[in-house]
Design a protein that fits this description.
Helix content: over 70%
Strand content: under 5%
CATH superfamily of the domain at 1-107: Tetratricopeptide repeat domain
Order of helices and strands: HHHHHHHHHHHHHHHHHHHHHH
CATH topology of the domain at 1-107: Serine Threonine Protein Phosphatase 5, Tetratricopeptide repeat
Structural class: mainly alpha
Number of helices: 22
CATH class of the domain at 1-107: Mainly Alpha
């Protein structure tokens, strides 16, 4: 047990030298209760391990056990604040940071940095990014941590170009970081750069083959790139692990459909819907299969159900329009559905332009933030839309268009 803890300590010093040395110093001071302190240090190390595995609940459980022994450790409270921030519990993170300040009598450099990272994730990324990027350029020892927080903040706002920049900078410093590879893959998919996303997913999966979520993202990206034979082994492995997972069943069905195995594709999609009757993608792809095999009426029923579940999905509306177009005397309804599709596509194209082009020129003004928020509300992304509208009011508290949108909402 002691040897294992020694190994943990040596690894922790290499990974987080400043935090770990603070913990070790505390252990030396508390040597009279060596066994209890070794247990607390073990909990601290297990919390760190859980963070790297992105098991936030487990990390919080371990750090809380650590704090039972070390309630007066500012270092442990700082680690708890960091874990709560990563887990999205911002109020609890603030509580731990306030306790750090109380215990230390002032805000140390490490505590001030964590406050800035917390502000970034809470929506003030434009207000704090200048100071944080300057710290990175100056060679701050926690540059990777800063880049992670900035990337997370930009991803939350749908600002994928700056998120990609931060993730690339992070990977230049730590090229084998699974989280950075996984996140950059997600970002590259949003930017319609799927070959790069596939490359990142592959590398992340090599480093963490137990991560089913990464394997599924890789498989789905391969399917979307028509690389069905490479996707199939990943999907089959996931299916063995969880036979009822609807996304896996849909992925398998798409592969079988493209390989000409229509009966098997239909069986897989019906199996997914038997367990998850409101799964929009299963409804969509079964509708597409019915449409492709000359059954537009059956396709319409499925696609209308899909549109009820996900009313803002472009592919659903396009295929619903096609199912109506292929039925006699339904051309007027098809034209109305085409208008729905075109209006939705216009909104999504405008949103992509604002997020990709306008924001490349610097932090948004109130007008841009307000328009982004309004489009997001119209397309069903309420939480993110409200976030952008609040951002517009922080920039300009009297911004009339924003207040009008919020009043209508």
């Amino acid at each position: 047990m002691v040897f294992r803890l020694f190994q943990y300590g040596r690894q922790a010093i290499g990974r987080h030298p400043r935090i770990t040395l603070g913990v070790v110093f505390f252990l030396v001071l508390a040597g009279s209760a060596g066994g209890v302190n070794l247990w607390a240090f073990y909990q601290w190390r297990e919390a760190d391990r859980a963070v790297h595995a992105e098991h936030w609940d487990e990390a919080r459980r371990h750090i809380q056990l650590c704090l039972r022994v070390w309630p007066a450790s500012a270092t442990a409270h700082l680690q708890a604040a960091r874990i709560d921030r990563l887990a999205g519990d911002y109020q609890e993170a603030e509580t731990h940071l306030e306790e750090c300040r109380r215990l230390q009598g002032e805000a140390t450099e490490a505590t001030q940095l964590e406050w800035l990272l917390l502000r970034a994730q809470q929506g003030d990324v434009d207000e704090v990014s200048g100071d944080l990027l300057a710290a990175i350029q100056a060679g701050h020892p926690e540059s990777a941590l800063i880049l992670e927080a900035l990337a997370r903040a930009y991803m939350r706002e749908g600002r994928y170009w700056p998120a990609r920049y931060c993730l690339t900078q992070w990977l230049e410093r730590e090229p084998d970081t699974v989280r950075a590879l996984h996140w950059r893959g997600l970002v590259l998919e949003k930017l319609e750069q799927r070959p790069g996303a596939i490359q990142d997913y592959r590398r992340a999966l090599e480093l963490a083959p137990e991560r089913s979520d990464i394997r599924l993202h890789l498989a789905e990206a391969l399917v979307n790139e028509s690389m069905f034979r490479e996707a199939l082994p990943h999907l089959e492995q996931l299916h063995r692990q969880d036979p009822d997972q609807p996304d896996v069943l849909v992925g398998l069905a798409r592969c079988r459909f493209q390989m000409g195995q229509l009966a098997e594709a239909r069986r897989l999609l019906k199996e997914a819907l038997a367990h998850h009757p409101d799964h929009a993608m299963a409804l969509l792809h079964l509708g597409k299969l019915e449409l492709a095999t000359g059954h537009p009426q059956e396709a319409e029923v499925l696609l209308r159900r899909a549109a009820q579940v996900d009313p803002y999905h472009l592919e659903i509306h396009y295929n619903l329009q096609q199912s109506l177009e292929h039925q006699p005397l339904r051309h007027q309804e098809a034209a109305a559905e085409l208008e729905v599709y075109q209006k939705l596509k216009k909104d999504q194209d405008r949103l992509a332009f604002l997020l990709r082009k306008q924001l490349d020129q610097g932090p948004p003004n109130a007008e841009v933030a307000s328009e982004i928020g309004a489009i997001l509300l119209r397309t069903g992304q309420e939480a993110l839309g409200l976030h952008w509208l609040r951002k517009a009011l922080r920039i300009d508290p009297g911004h009339k268009p924003t207040r009008e949108v919020l009043a209508r909402y």
